Amino acid sequence: MAHIAFIGLGNMGGGMAANLVKAGHAVRAFDLSEAALAKAEANGCSRAGSAAEAIGGAEAVITMLPAGKHVRDVYESSVIGQAPTSAILIDCSTIDVATAREEIGKAESAGYQMVDAPVSGGIAAAEGGTLTFMVGGEAAAFERARPLLEQMGKAVIHAGGAGAGQAAKICNNMLLGASMIATCETFAMAQKLGLDLQTFYDISSKASGQCWSMTTYCPVPGVGPTTPADRDYEGGFASALMLKDLRLAMEAAQSVDAYTPMGAHAEELYTRFADHLGGGGKDFSAIIRMIDDSWSR
Ligand code: NAD
């Protein structure tokens, strides 16, 4: 059992902290939201009045915050220089690679071990303890973080040095965004060409066009396994979060001069769908409705 400070108990952090409690740890929780804190308390965490109070005496500090600016604020105002230097620092938020590297650098200069450990898997995986963690940082820091991450996930992979977890996450999600759009336009065209869509699914999921966005997460209602498309595109991975990740990917691409025309186009299309057409709250496969309105209600 360890004393863990957990900061950021929203949709994802709430379930993750609850799994650490179930694994027998003493989790001291802090969030700016009263509702998030009350839920964490109901799940067995103890409530802290501030981030600084949560981290006093902690052996591990875990953060699950919205974006880079929140991570920078929390680490620079309440964690670095205030947590015991023996604590392992683990940031699970999805943020830009540059901020992740900067904060890990600052933490290491102050004598801490720290990793970036963003996740793949949504709210259900956070609650069920089946997240995939992609981790960046020194090998020794990874080995210290691994047992805790294993209690919240089904796979924990060391991606490389500081920021490599974030790099892997945005590369993966850039591919996912582009492949979802390609899947949507393909089904829209197949329909217009008169193909039966389940038959086309059966063919293409066994042929060279096969990809996860089609075979496992088909955006067409009633085709393939049950997916958010069968629930009016509710639940799943929100288009607004896909757009956030595509923006991070484009920022990263620019910083290393990578040519990413498909990623750039995916970002443009998700901007149109999430920001201009009000689709941000729907699952990211709902972008099929922008491509062809046959699937709109
Ligand atoms: P969320 O907005 O539900 O939760 C974030 C929490 O952080 C909120 O409760 C907020 O009050 C709290 N917070 C913000 N600033 C704070 C501060 N200074 N001190 C303490 N608490 C603070 O977001 P989420 O859906 O839980 O996502 C968290 C991270 O996980 C994001 O980076 C997101 O991109 C990533 N992610 C989300 C999903 C998903 O499906 N929701 C999947 C994979 C990754």
TrEMBL record:
Record-annotated 3-hydroxyisobutyrate dehydrogenase-like NAD-binding domain positions: 163-291
Iron is among the record's keywords: no
Catalytic activity: 3-hydroxy-2-methylpropanoate + NAD(+) = 2-methyl-3-oxopropanoate + NADH + H(+)
GO molecular function: 3-hydroxyisobutyrate dehydrogenase activity; NAD binding; NADP binding
Pfam families: NAD_binding_11 (PF14833), NAD_binding_2 (PF03446)
UniProt entry tagged with the keyword Oxidoreductase: yes
EC numbers for this chain: 1.1.1.31
Pathway(s) the chain acts in: Amino-acid degradation; L-valine degradation
6-phosphogluconate dehydrogenase NADP-binding domain residues: 4-160
Catalytic residues (UniProt): 169
Domain of life: Bacteria
Gene3D superfamilies, per database record: N-(1-d-carboxylethyl)-l-norvaline Dehydrogenase, domain 2, NAD(P)-binding Rossmann-like Domain
GO biological process, one term: L-valine catabolic process
SUPFAM superfamilies listed in its UniProt record: 6-phosphogluconate dehydrogenase C-terminal domain-like, NAD(P)-binding Rossmann-fold domains
Family according to the record: Belongs to the HIBADH-related family.
Listed NCBIfam families: HIBADH
Protein name: 3-hydroxyisobutyrate dehydrogenase
